[in-house]
């Protein structure tokens, strides 16, 4: 290797992983702000007096407006760039998170959850766009797995930090403290991050294995919806995102209602589950990146990794039959880890199939579909629990979604590769 090339590689590998670190910490904050409601649900249910159905509809408020945020920010990030769009999104959702401390009714929580959803909709379109700009294809799934593991770390920190904070200072203080973290991140983001094309050598290295992109305007939603590749991503998100939301919003209630765990003891099982998801997120991204480095095609590498993850979810069908708390935690942890490994690869497919100027919009459309699925599944969950109080049906539905999604995606896109945009 020539010295100049070696210098470029060293510079690129150093700075692009700094970018990945910023994306990671943003996602940690995103999920701490998102998960706090689920962790405090038993306390809030006692203080405010909401029913299972009302709680489900508060979750629906977040899900519905998160879909709006994803769709809107998907277009915004393609138009104004990652740096500014990410900062705007962070300010919006951090302020909304703090405002939870100011409400004390079901309607009030529904409103602030809706505001939180709009702001948080900017996280993944911005992060996936940044990854597509900064990382070569062979590293994207790994980078996505690493920053997406921030969801898991946030979910680990949340049960370790939030219940003791709420016990010591009250649930309102917990919302304020966690919400304020995003404003600290936003200052660091604006100080550190610059667009990849301002670092020319690194940008060229990241895209040396891709076709030269034809300049043009950001595509319209209509043109993207004409393409099978868009629908493959939509289906993948619609069928599997709701399962993750079930884990995020209902696992604390499941541990409380089915396993008898109160707020002071619920932390260790949740920490264990979300610690496993960190391994799954990075491991799932590593699998496809390792296959690519060994010369396998993008299509084979991504789908093989997703198939492995889909199979690892299946044992959760039997979790309700397991008497041991930690045995059940291990099964749920495996399924949640497999979801995050699946997600690391699924999130990478838009940059595999579309030019950069379309990535944000496609991620936004697919994310919206996942949120719509979350809205529908949240209503199903609320109805099932209100009528039966049993979780096993919900776990069974979650177990089968991934294989169904992968099958439909393969039928729509037998070969993952970059296509020209529809006119």
Structural description of this entry:
The protein is mainly alpha-helical and 423 residues long. The protein has a single domain, classed as MFS general substrate transporter like domains (Growth Hormone, Chain: A, Up-down Bundle), CATH 1.20.1250. The protein is 81% helix and 0% strand. The chain has helices at 3-48, 52-80, 82-99, 106-120, 123-134, 137-169, 171-192, 200-206, 221-224, 228-258, 267-293, 298-313, 325-353, 356-387, 392-412. The longest helix is centred in the first third of the chain and has 46 residues, at 3-48. Residues 1-13 have low confidence and may be disordered.
List the helices and strands and how they pair.
Blueprint: H1 3-48, H2 52-80, H3 82-99, H4 106-120, H5 123-134, H6 137-169, H7 171-192, H8 200-206, H9 221-224, H10 228-258, H11 267-293, H12 298-313, H13 325-353, H14 356-387, H15 392-412
Order of helices and strands: HHHHHHHHHHHHHHH
C-alpha end-to-end distance? 41 Å
CATH topology (fold) name: Growth Hormone, Chain: A
Poorly predicted residue ranges: 1-13
By CATH's scheme, which homologous superfamily applies? MFS general substrate transporter like domains
Shape: globular
Whole-number average pLDDT?
Answer: 84
């Amino acid at each position: 290797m020539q010295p100049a090339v070696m210098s470029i590689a060293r510079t690129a590998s150093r700075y692009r992983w700094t970018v990945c670190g910023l994306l990671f910490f943003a996602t940690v904050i995103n999920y701490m702000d998102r998960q706090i409601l689920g962790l405090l649900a038993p306390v809030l249910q006692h203080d405010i007096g909401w029913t299972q159905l009302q709680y489900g509809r508060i979750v629906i408020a977040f899900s519905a407006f998160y879909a709006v945020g994803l769709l809107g920010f998907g277009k915004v990030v393609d138009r104004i760039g990652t740096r500014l769009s990410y900062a705007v999104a962070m300010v919006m959702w951090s302020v909304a998170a703090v405002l939870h401390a100011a409400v004390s009714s079901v309607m009030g929580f529904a409103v602030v959850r809706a505001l939180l959803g709009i702001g948080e909709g900017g996280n993944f379109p911005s992060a996936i766009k940044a990854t597509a700009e900064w990382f070569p294809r062979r590293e994207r799934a790994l980078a996505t797995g690493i920053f997406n593991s921030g969801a898991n770390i946030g979910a680990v920190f949340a049960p370790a930090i939030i219940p003791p904070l709420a016990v010591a200072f009250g649930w309102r203080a917990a919302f304020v403290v966690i919400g304020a973290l995003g404003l600290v991140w936003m200052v660091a983001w604006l100080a550190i991050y610059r667009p990849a094309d301002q670092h020319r050598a690194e940008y060229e290295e990241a895209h040396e294995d891709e076709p030269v992109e034809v300049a043009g305007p950001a595509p319209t939603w209509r043109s993207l919806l004409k393409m099978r590749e868009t629908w493959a991503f939509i289906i993948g998100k619609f069928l599997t995102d709701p399962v993750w939301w079930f884990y995020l919003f209902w696992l604390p209630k499941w541990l409380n209602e089915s396993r008898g765990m109160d707020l002071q003891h619920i932390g260790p099982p949740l920490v264990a589950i979300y610690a496993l998801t960190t391994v799954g997120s990075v491991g799932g991204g590593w699998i496809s990146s390792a296959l690519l480095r060994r010369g396998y095609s993008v299509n084979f590498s991504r789908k093989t990794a997703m198939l492995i993850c889909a199979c690892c979810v299946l044992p959760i069908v039997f979790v309700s039959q397991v008497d041991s708390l930690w045995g059940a935690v291990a099964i749920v942890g495996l399924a949640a880890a497999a979801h995050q490994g699946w997600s690391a690869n699924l999130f990478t497919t838009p940059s595999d199939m579309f030019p950069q100027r379309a990535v944000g919009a496609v991620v936004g459309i697919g994310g919206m579909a996942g949120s719509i699925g979350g809205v529908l599944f949240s209503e199903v969950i609320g109805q099932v629990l209100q009528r039966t109080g049993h979780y096993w049906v919900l776990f069974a539905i979650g177990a089968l979604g991934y294989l169904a999604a992968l099958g439909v995606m393969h039928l729509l896109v037998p070969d993952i590769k970059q296509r020209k945009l529809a006119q």
